[in-house]
Design goal:
By secondary structure, the protein is of the alpha/beta class. 35% of the residues lie in helices and 13% in strands. It contains ten helices and nine strands. The protein starts with 37 loop residues before the first helix and ends with a helix. The structure holds N-carbamoyl-L-aspartate. Residues 79-80, 151, 157, 160, 190-191, 251, 253, 289-290 line the site of N-carbamoyl-L-aspartate.
């Protein structure tokens, strides 16, 4: 009787035959936007466009059939968590949702390394949101399966920045030459930390408009100035609004303040209204990672330049692309 000889394995013993072993990003973690080059971005956005076309044509298809995603959220989420779920299900895969860690063994005191080593026994990829900077990197150190950072405290939110950039490209058809104005809580807002870094791969000008106490961290500004990106800081929007192509509004991150009086003093620092929009370019777009808590009045929603609802939809296609890529199917 012939003896069964198992096929030779590469570095990953769980690799099913027929997968795209040489695909870029196969088996990789997505931890920070710093890991991406311009070529990577072109590739990701190319796949995202294909995902968009497929969703319009067939809605759901079986690219990731049999694959399982663990959605591990230690902080609240509506968009990120549900868009990853939708992305996985539209690709034919399934999801283990852990949106309330207090009902999981985390509340018994289980460490993050142990929780991810548990989940990877049951899932092929883990999406993680955690209140501490560097939590995803720590998880990735222990996990064999890909970890996707869905926000690590005030650190980064790389998948949001990718969808933000995809939104800019889809809406304005270019990134080079644009003036991007980031407004609001630039100190604690992780989305702007990631987006500023990602934009530094292009030729852009960036304005930071924030209260004095919520300025963009020096570390981020230094990284961008080393890449020759012109950056300027303001406390009011008036001066920079007429030259702005992308107005990126953020929520003041109440949960990050140790002194709530400080939060109270800045929580209504900026409000975008229809009157604000009269002073902006006709082809400008307004973006916001959402949730908004008063920074953009609802009357602005009717303005065609309000891109924040479309931005969420672009997020689905980018997250479908990322899942397919790290699982070796794109
Ligand atoms: C952002 C986040 O969680 O950082 N939300 C999101 O993922 N769309 C922004 C925020 O909470 O203000």
């Amino acid at each position: 009787m012939a003896t069964y000889v198992p096929p030779a394995r590469t570095e990953n013993p769980y690799l099913p035959l027929g997968d795209h072993r040489n695909a870029p990003f196969y088996g990789k973690d997505i931890l920070s936007v710093r890991q991406f080059s311009r070529e990577d971005l072109d590739y990701i956005f190319g796949v995202a466009k294909e995902m968009h076309a497929m969703v319009e044509r067939v809605g759901t298809f079986d690219l990731l059939k049999g694959k399982i995603l663990a959605n591990l959220f230690y902080e609240p989420s509506t968009r990120t968590s549900s868009s990853f779920t939708s992305a996985m299900e539209r690709l034919g895969g399934s999801v283990i949702p852990i949106n309330e860690v207090r009902y999981s063994s985390v509340s018994k005191g289980e460490s993050l390394p142990d929780t991810v080593r548990t989940l990877e026994c049951y899932a092929d990829v883990i999406v993680l949101r955690h209140p501490e900077v560097g939590a995803s990197a720590l998880a990735a150190k222990y996990a064999r399966k890909p970890i996707i950072n869905a926000g690590d405290g005030v650190g980064e939110h790389p998948t949001q920045a990718l969808l933000d950039l995809f939104t800019i490209l889809s809406e304005l058809k270019r990134v080079n030459g644009l003036t991007v104005t980031m407004l609001g809580d630039l100190k604690y807002g992780r989305t702007v930390h990631s987006l500023a870094r990602l934009l530094s791969l292009y030729e852009v000008r960036i304005n930071y408009v924030s209260p004095e106490i919520l300025r963009m961290p020096e570390e981020v500004k230094k990284e961008l100035s080393e890449k020759g990106i012109p950056q300027a800081e303001y406390e009011t929007l008036d001066e920079v609004l007429p030259e702005t192509d992308v107005l990126y509004v953020t929520r003041v991150q109440k949960e990050r303040f140790s002194d709530l009086n400080e939060y109270e003093s800045v929580k209504h620092a900026y409000v975008i209204t229809p009157e604000t929009m009269t002073r902006a370019k006709d082809e400008m777009i307004v973006m916001h990672p959402l949730p908004r808590v008063g920074e953009i009045s609802m009357e602005v929603d009717e303005d065609p330049r309000a891109a924040y609802f479309r931005q969420m939809e672009y997020g689905l296609y980018v997250r479908m692309a990322l899942l397919a890529m790290v699982l070796g199917k794109a």
